[in-house]
């Protein structure tokens, strides 16, 4: 395990990384929020169906 070599690789990646613009950040946040809402809605629908059919 060569620690200096690994640290230089991490440094190179951090130098290439850039902060996203506000438009890019807001688009990613909206897509992630929509995914969270979709998963929550799916879980709620499964919950309602499981309570509506007591034998399941």
What descriptors fit this protein?
56 residues, cell membrane, mainly alpha, membrane, 0% strand
Number of helices: 2
Beta-strand proportion = under 5%
The CA-CA distance between the termini, in Å, is 53 Å
**Rg from Cα:** 22 Å
Structural class: mainly alpha
- Dominant shape: elongated
Mean pLDDT: 89
Please characterize this protein's 3D structure.
It comes from Halocalculus aciditolerans. It is found in: Cell membrane; Endomembrane system. Essential subunit of the Sec protein translocation channel SecYEG. Clamps together the 2 halves of SecY. May contact the channel plug during translocation. The chain crosses the membrane at residues 28-53. This protein has helices at residues 3-16, 22-52. It has 56 residues and is mainly alpha-helical. It has a domain at 18-56. The mean pLDDT is 89.
Summarize the structure.
The protein has 56 residues and is mainly α.
SSE blueprint and pairings:
Blueprint: H1 3-16, H2 22-52
